[in-house]
Amino acid sequence: MSDNLLKVMKRIQELTVKAAEIGETAQDMLTSATEELGEVAACISHEKGRKEKDLSEDSVTESIDLAICALSIMFMKGGTIGRYCKNWIGQIGKVEF
């Protein structure tokens, strides 16, 4: 894992701990992830010309927000950076497009 990616993941982990300390739960983070997914969808619709809507961010930025939410859920449920690194290859092998 690159140093920058490791720093990002550590920061997300730290923020997740702080969120838990103020009462945020995995369900709250799932709600946020669902909202971000909707924002990704809106951006993609706009970028494909299907919707005329003023957007403050593009689909790449919204996708990053969604990934942050997903990682926060993982950390909230007891996942670790080590487990993520160990398991991601196997998980990606299951993805079909």
Strand content: under 5%
Overall pLDDT score: 92
Shape: globular
Structural class: mainly alpha
Short summary:
The protein has 97 residues and is an all-alpha fold. The chain has four helices and no strands.
What does this structure look like?
This protein has helices at residues 3-21, 26-47, 59-76, 81-93. With 97 residues, the protein is an all-alpha fold. It has one domain (3-93): Helix Hairpins (Orthogonal Bundle). It is globular, with a radius of gyration of 15 Å.
Helix/strand layout:
Layout: H1 3-21, H2 26-47, H3 59-76, H4 81-93
Task: Record keyword descriptors for this entry.
97 residues, mainly alpha, Helix Hairpins, 4 helices, 0% strand, globular
